[in-house]
């Protein structure tokens, strides 16, 4: 009688365990060809961009990846990038075992919040990072994040293949263009790949299935030199609080100059006079430029401060002169302003 009850108990546990599994996460379902040369397999990657208008979009990304071994762990990519103009609406993640059983469900507190950039005085660019140490291989990581932003200067690109030694079972990229905003689309290396494209109404969709992993060898090119990618830019866009125009390179350059550069060359008179005294006895503009370049080298140092639109717009020349530091854009603009103050043609 006791043995019968024990057998019944074990049978019930087995049934409960089966029902607690999600067969879609099981590694047993993966085609053998996708495991060849692979350290990780993208089981499903869905990117949906809802372009509500030229200045408003929602991005939903769901990514399911099976990590086959320790070498594939770096492809887990459990990182969320955000800043004051990109709001994280929701995110969650789960880990499943090889049979599809749920091993762990992550909470918000499991994600560490870091600055996205190092060696900078201050930056508003942030990232949420999940630091997970697996207890077994293979395992499957399922992750979803929803972002909201008013910055549409370049939509999220689509990379159906992630890297060397990573295969793709299924990947889709969908743009729902609610206001039919005019788009510029660049498709690279899509030929001779198992990639399909559809364009119906206001929805553009790309999909890829069953792409085997590429094996890296000595002297192999950088992966992005031949990997397929789709890049999308609205021809009218928003960059934080500035409307933008990118119908062509001429329009984009004019917009950049008129909105981000034109008022940044405000050198104080004291700086103009100081540099004028340094070059007053020099006729050759090349030699003048050398003196000004050395002046900038001696006076300033590189420190990056990325606030607001600072990733695109340089600090004012007057600020660099006063603080004696700036990032690459700021120091370039400062040098250009000094040269122009002495009648030397210079371009940013």
Summed over residues and divided by their number, the pLDDT gives a mean of 87
Strand tally is 19
CATH class of the largest domain: Mainly Beta
Structural class: alpha+beta
Helix and strand run: HHEEEEEEEEEEEEEEEEHHHEEHEH
The separation of the N and C termini measures 88 Å
Describe the largest sheet: 8 strands, mixed
Main-sheet strand order equals 5-4-9-2-1-10-13-12
CATH topology of the largest domain: Immunoglobulin-like
Query: What is the helix content?
Result: 10-25%
Proportion of β residues?
A: 35-45%
User: What quaternary form is this?
Assistant: single chain
For the record, the count of structural domains works out to 2
Describe the SSE topology.
Layout: H1 2-19, H2 32-35, E1 40-53, E2 56-67, E3 79-82, E4 86-96, E5 102-106, E6 111-115, E7 120-123, E8 126-130, E9 139-149, E10 166-177, E11 183-188, E12 195-200, E13 203-211, E14 229-234, E15 236-239, E16 242-245, H3 249-261, H4 269-279, H5 285-299, E17 301-302, E18 304-306, H6 317-323, E19 325-326, H7 328-341
Parallel strand pairs: 1-10, 7-18, 17-19
Antiparallel strand pairs: 1-2, 2-9, 3-8, 4-5, 4-9, 6-8, 10-13, 11-14, 12-13, 15-16
Helix pairs in contact: 5-7, 6-7
